[in-house]
Design brief:
heterodimer; A: alpha+beta; Arc Repressor Mutant, subunit A; 2 domains; four-stranded antiparallel β-sheet; B: alpha+beta; three-stranded antiparallel β-sheet; two-stranded antiparallel sheet; 12% strand
Chain lengths: 276, 214
Amino acid sequence: MHGMQAIEASESGYAVKVDAFEGPMDLLLHLIKKNQVNIYDIPIALITRQYLETLDLMQSLNLAVAGEFLVMAATLLHIKSRLLLPVPEPEDAEEDPRLNLVHQLLIYQQFKGAAEQLEVRERHFREVFRRNPTPPSDATSDEVFLGEVSLFDLLSALQEVTARLPNPIVMSITEEALSISDRMQFILERTAACESLLFHELFDTMQQTSYRVIVTFCALLEVVRLGLIRLLQIDPNGPIRLVRRVTAEGDAAAGDDEDGGVIHYALHRGDNNGGF
Amino acid sequence: MEDSKIAAILEALLFVSGDPLSFDRIHQLIGGERERLMFVLLEMKKGWDQTDRGLSIIEVAGGYQMVTRPEVSPWVKVLERVKITTRLTRPGLETLAVIAYRQPVTRAEIESIRGVDTAGVLRTLMERRLVKIVGRKEVPGRPIMYGTTRWFLEYFGLSDLTALPTLKEMADLAPAEATGSSVSEPLTSEPPSAFVTAVTPAAAADLNPEAQPS
């Protein structure tokens, strides 16, 4: 909701323009400040009413009210209801129902302050330039800013491939001669030939069966684990690219030293079961 | 070697490197007594700081770096080679602040502090290489833990994580005259300072950026 402005109405009828709120905590802090009340002794009835009024207002302005705002509203109402209950015994030492919220607000306030301080630093150091500003990472190309792909990105990409598989056959007894080592070799050959390879291209070249897709996918995980291939993505939902890791000499780099032997083994062992 | 010669070499190294050079690396390159080298380095740094120069030497991300002065930035920015980054959004800064002070930290922990969903912001911070995955927490579900990167230090001009300002107590929210009122009895048992000490970056001080897995 940042970047927008919300109009905040008060009971007296005038309207004040304020910055929109990052979230429920932000709004609560604002109300506490505005009413100049003690954060250790929040007048829950007053704050809850104003909080709900603001939500109504945001809704009437067609600002999307995120679910978190409603959760906080429920929390406030819950606290309010607990405060309305008669206190059983003064020495029963029941915890103030507001305690938790106050604690949360105090911590949030600290980080909000820290964020403001970071912003000051950011503003200063944006005006400071270093020689040859490069993104602080290895082997990313200059023109596109590629992000590392997470396992979940990878899995959703796999899902897309499996979704395109022909209808499942009830039983299949064909003997598959494809091994993970074969597919690793295939991936390395393909990526050596061109600068980058799209994820789905790995699967386009063969007649697809779920066995083959899975073997190929496992092979991909293996070459990534061995540090031979990097997976990169330009935008969060964009296609995933395979890029061969290159050392200064132009050869495929062999991850960590202790992995070196494993690569050799994995690529040259002659078995056909591919580790299944 | 004379001090002036050492200074000249230092200057050249910092100019060419671009990246921050750690003192250890500088010592490795130049050799000699560490104390003397440090003395020359600091003297030179002072020299750059005092005069009306376009460059200065700053201590950042565990090293020393030669950078331009903010006063000359309007002219520097005209150079097309200079990349100007977009500023971080408020959610971005807030999330980064939580990660910086609480690292290693999981997404759920960040969200419990901020009170809002943080997935998109985290992704942006990762893409901007200010935040990275530092491991998994050994609790059910093994959630991913995040930490700040070396670039984070450079971006904010911090020499290391201990250079982060200590989290301020929110005195402005608790008016002095209102404390100790009768109704707030249950809460005064918890002194506000307890919150502050819990969140100083000192806890994160041992996370030397050099030692973090890349």
